[in-house]
Amino acid sequence: MDLRDTPEEVAFRTEVRGWLEANIPTELTGPRSGEEAYARAWHDWSRKLSDAGYAGLTWPKEYGGSGAPYSHQAILLEELARAEAPQHMGVIGLGMAGPTIIAHGTDAQKTRYLQKIMTAEEIWCQGFSEPDAGSDLAAARTSARLEGDHFVVDGQKLWSSFAHIADWCILVTRSDPESTKHAGMTYLLVDMHAPGVEVRPLRQITGEAEFNEIFFTAVRVPVENVVGEIGQGWAVAMTTLLHERATLGFALTASLEVNLRKLITLARERTEGDPILRDRIAREWIELQALRLTNYRALTQLIKTGMPGPEGSVSKLQWSEANQRLTKLALEVLGPEAQLWNGDGAGYWQYQQLRSRGNTIEAGTSEILRNIIAERVLGLPRSR
Amino acid sequence: MDFSFTEEQEQLRREARTLLADRYPPERVAELADSAEGWDPASWGELAGLGWIGVSVPEEAGGAGLGFLEEAVLFEELGRALYPGPYFSTVALALPELPAELQRDVVEGKTRWSASLDGSLVPDLAIVDRVLVARDGKLVAVPAEGEALETMDSTRRLGRIAHGAEGEEVGDASAFERMRVRAFAALALEAVGIAQRALELTVEHAKTREQFGKPIGIYQAVSHRLSDSYAMTELARSLSYWAAWCVAEQDDEARVAAAAAKSYASDVAVTVCEYAIQVHGGTGFTWEHPLHRYYKRAQWIQSYGGYPAVQRAEIAAAILG
To answer: Quick check: A44 pLDDT over 80?
Structure first.
């Protein structure tokens, strides 16, 4: 056991920190100057990260990745958080579509898609959830009918981040209309600019529209865009979700760390020694350390065995609830002013608190995560 | 960064777990806990023979010359087994602060020690020989004389030390700060062992106990509590291993890491035991079932050196000023 960076990790951390100091644009760290300007700056920033070799850090070199160990990915995310710089905007591409293509895709698909994910030239979105298939993904009904060398796709997806700006979508479809549950599903890569694709924003409780509904009406998708085998889409989708949760831990913890640091700054100005608030802040600090260290234990396991350990399943569950508590605590520290959108912090905590309610729903509800721990880690009987 | 134990440390864990499961099945712990002495004095010679007492003592003083990480493995396993005996008092509190000539006797199993950390209550007072106390800025060894008290956790009884006993100066009182950090790390590890064992017993129960024609673990009202117990235990484990590493390395963060680990892990052990009692139903509420022994030890740990809010106040001072 040695919880210090290795000399090689120190070198990488120093390099990243220096690079970030020299390269973060002020548009991304200061107050936002309008959504469009921000989006443009974010896009440029993502390309810069890619040019520096910081996108697809752990991806194989043959597809343009850096072939770096997972520990570098963790260091990069920590340093981005420390600098309060956003991550690469292609989170779905880098965290989900890319790893799935690497695991199950054809050589042609790897060559066609991976590089453009890293450079942010193409942005991806995820078409998994449906109005009647949320946690129960196997109930998905979006149909893909094979006609010659094309699938014809009809259906509706929702809760899709980035769909309004996305170029591609990883889509879970039912290709065998007679099938039910896990059989007869096919995993497709769909061009979001194809005729018949319509995106409608979903306004959420924060007031903004971060998510979207996607409607597919007779959208033609060439068969070479199938990932894995026709009818074997369920297994491919599981790879996507595994990667979603595996790579998420460090990114989420890093964002929580940013919020905790902001909360501590706020509390120093505001709490004037209130022992109850001090106790609650200390509690959140401890919870954050526990989460951060648990991620490290999972990372050690991953590096040593190539398989994520069971402790990793705890990460998202813990983070989501910690973020909800922490953001509510920040509003309490603000006091009655917390109701003002234009008060101290210009709506930052108000937005963060409302947004945090989504944390226990998105990327696997807390109920589903508890089922997963109960069944796969503890070996309790299946409840369904 | 490497957050794993070495193969030798894992080997020590396996050996300890096997031996302790053999020596201390729940019936034996219950028998000892309910006895007048509260422990089996013959066990001390066995621990000395295994080399467990002198794990981190330098070889010149008869120890194994290893470190706190090896001890950490033993604290966790001894907690898991609910070992009744003055290992925590002797090894975590006193031993590293003793002069080499006194250490040798301890390592050989001839003398047992405890300490009065921040008041008059002394763990294991009745079953140790000497106690470290603070007197006029000095670290003083006094005979273990005083009043044995009845305690909730009868596997680790407290005593009230007699004041004014003649003592021998063995160092200065700065030892108590190091002692407190070590004690918190050790207790956090014990708490993890307890939580893990209580969870295992409960998972087993939820798989086999049937109601309404199904194993109760199929009901999410039951299984989700166990998922939460698992999550909490793993988080507590991470903090405890961090604290152990910081103590072993004399890292600057040792004080705050130990405070965080002790406060969090002891709360977790108590909660996991409470969930365990609930899921076991009436059985879990009986004297006969071993769960209450884990629960009481968890509460002992929670209280020692101040309940977790005391450690959180220390952390608040470190992060908020």
So the answer is: yes
CA distance B106 to B198: 32
What pLDDT does B241 receive? 98
| pLDDT reported for residue A33 | 62
Cα separation values, B188 from A73, A177, A189, B146, B306, Å: 30, 55, 49, 28, 14
- CB contacts under 8 A, B 219-278 vs A, are 219-220, 223-224, 226-228, 230-231, 234-239, 241-242, 245, 257, 260, 263-264
Please write the tens of the pLDDT for every residue from A167-195: 999 999 999 999 888 899 999 999 999 99
B309 touches chain A (CB under 8 A): yes
Q: Does A143 touch chain B (CB under 8 A)?
A: no
Its CATH class, for the domain covering B176-320, is mainly alpha
Give percent of chain A with pLDDT exceeding 70.
97
CATH topology of domain B7-173: Butyryl-Coa Dehydrogenase, subunit A; domain 1 (1.10.540)
How is B38-88 classified by DSSP, letter by letter?
Answer: SS-THHHHHHHHHT-TTTTS-GGGTS----HHHHHHHHHHHHHHT--STHI
d(CA A302, CA A322): 24
| Interchain CB distance below 8 Å, A378 and B239 | no
Which chain B residues are within 8 Å of A268, Cβ to Cβ? 320-321
For A118, A135, A155, A381, the CA distances from A171, given in Å and listed in that order, are 20, 16, 11, 31
Cβ–Cβ contacts within 10 Å for residue B18, how many?
11
CB A184 within 8 A of CB A140: no
Contact at CB, A378 and B227, closer than 8 angstroms? yes
* Residue showing tokens 């799935």: A100
Using DSSP bridges, classify how beta strands B138-143 and B168-172 pair: parallel, antiparallel or unpaired. antiparallel
Cα distance between residue B135 and residue B131, in whole Å: 12
CA neighbor of B172 nearest in space, from B99, B67, B68: B99
d(CA B311, nearest CA chain A) in Å: 9
* Mean pLDDT for the stretch of residues A364-384: 92
> Where does chain B show beta strands of DSSP type E?
113-115, 121-123, 130-135, 138-143, 146-148, 158-161, 168-172, 210-211, 214-215
Q: Is A311's pLDDT higher than 90?
A: no
Residue A109 CB neighbours (<10 A): 18
Which tokens in the block code for residue B111? 């003398």
With CB atoms and an 8 Å threshold, state whether B241 touches A314.
no
Domain A7-118, what fold?
A: Butyryl-Coa Dehydrogenase, subunit A; domain 1 (1.10.540)
DSSP H or E stretch at residue B189: helix B175-208
Question: Where in chain B are the domains?
Answer: 7-173, 176-320
Instruction: Kindly report the CATH number that applies to the domain delimited by A236-377.
Output: 1.20.140.10
The answer regarding whether domain A124-231 maps to CATH 2.40.110.10 reads: yes
pLDDT in tens, B99-135: 999 999 999 999 999 999 977 799 999 999 999 999 9
> Is the pLDDT assigned to residue A4 strictly greater than 70?
yes
- Average pLDDT score over residue span B24-44: 96
Contact B225, B284 (CB under 8 A): no
Work out the pLDDT band at A273, boundaries 50, 70, 90: confident
Which tokens sit at B192? 């993890």
Q: Which residue of B has its CA nearest to A314?
A: B231
Of B1, B226, B264, the CB nearest to A71: B1
C-alpha–C-alpha distance, residues A138 and B158, integer Å: 58
